[in-house]
């Protein structure tokens, strides 16, 4: 990008140098001053941001990883991948502590879409995830699905917001869900499909919220009110 300058570059210690796997997900862990990378080599790599060194690799997935989410209190990280599993990792113990194979639950399974997990988010003891299986709200402590959201299209991004869940994927709309599974609203964007959502809030001024959505076009949609698209940025 014009005007930008690369400050540094780091690459995880992959097992082979013949082929460099893609990186599908990045996750900042502020309390640990670290960055977690995950992708095509089926591992989570932790990088110390002060030294730039990779401190650990977490192994357990049997296929490449699509998404990461942070449980800040613990600290723990959730990962979802092509193998259909959501895995919970204890960063300080550097080990896997819980596995949920979503596609094995009949109420979540959609074999025609596959078993892959393409998005997940967490809020305390709750997790929402989707992809091939249906978008589903889970209670983590009991590993129990509590709400199946009636959305036929695979979702690519999901996030908690107050008492709502926001999701996006195949199709141009940002979906607003009640925790009970009721679809509250669908807010159209400018792209035919959405791949990512980012919600920015100022803690001192909670009314100053901005949601951005990007997908299969050159535009980034900006929502200053979750009920409509305010404008779009083109690149």
From TrEMBL:
Repeat (WD) positions are 58-99
Recorded hits in Gene3D superfamilies, A to Z, give: YVTN repeat-like/Quinoprotein amine dehydrogenase (2.130.10.10)
From what superkingdom does this record's organism come? Eukaryota
Keyword annotations for this protein?
Repeat, WD repeat
Coiled coil, from the record: none
Which biological process terms from the Gene Ontology are attached to this UniProt entry? mRNA export from nucleus
Q: Name one GO cellular component term.
A: transcription export complex
- Family, per entry: Belongs to the WD repeat THOC6 family.
UniProt protein name: THO complex 6
| Species whose genome carries this gene | Phyllostomus discolor (pale spear-nosed bat)
Taxonomic lineage from the root? Eukaryota, Metazoa, Chordata, Craniata, Vertebrata
């Amino acid at each position: 990008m014009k005007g930008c300058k690369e400050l540094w570059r780091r690459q995880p210690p992959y097992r082979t140098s013949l082929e460099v796997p893609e990186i599908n997900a990045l996750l900042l862990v502020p309390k640990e001053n670290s960055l977690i990378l995950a992708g095509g080599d089926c591992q989570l790599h932790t990088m110390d941001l002060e030294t730039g060194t990779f401190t650990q690799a977490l192994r357990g997935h049997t296929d490449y990883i699509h998404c990461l989410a942070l449980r800040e209190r613990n600290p723990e990280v959730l990962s979802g991948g092509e193998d259909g599993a959501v895995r919970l990792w204890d960063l300080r113990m550097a080990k896997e502590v819980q596995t949920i194979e979503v596609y094995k639950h009949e109420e979540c399974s959609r074999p025609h879409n596959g078993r892959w997990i393409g998005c997940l988010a967490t809020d305390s003891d709750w997790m929402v995830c989707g992809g091939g299986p249906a978008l589903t709200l889970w209670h983590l402590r009991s590993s129990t699905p509590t709400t199946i959201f009636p959305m036929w299209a695979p979702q690519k991004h999901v996030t908690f917001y107050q008492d709502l869940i926001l999701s996006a994927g195949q199709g141009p709309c940002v979906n607003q869900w009640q925790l009970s599974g009721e679809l509250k609203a669908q807010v159209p964007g400018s792209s035919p499909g959405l791949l990512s959502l980012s919600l920015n809030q100022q803690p001192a001024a909670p009314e100053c919220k901005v949601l951005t959505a990007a997908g299969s076009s050159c535009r980034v949609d900006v929502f200053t009110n979750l009920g409509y698209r305010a404008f779009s940025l083109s690149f």
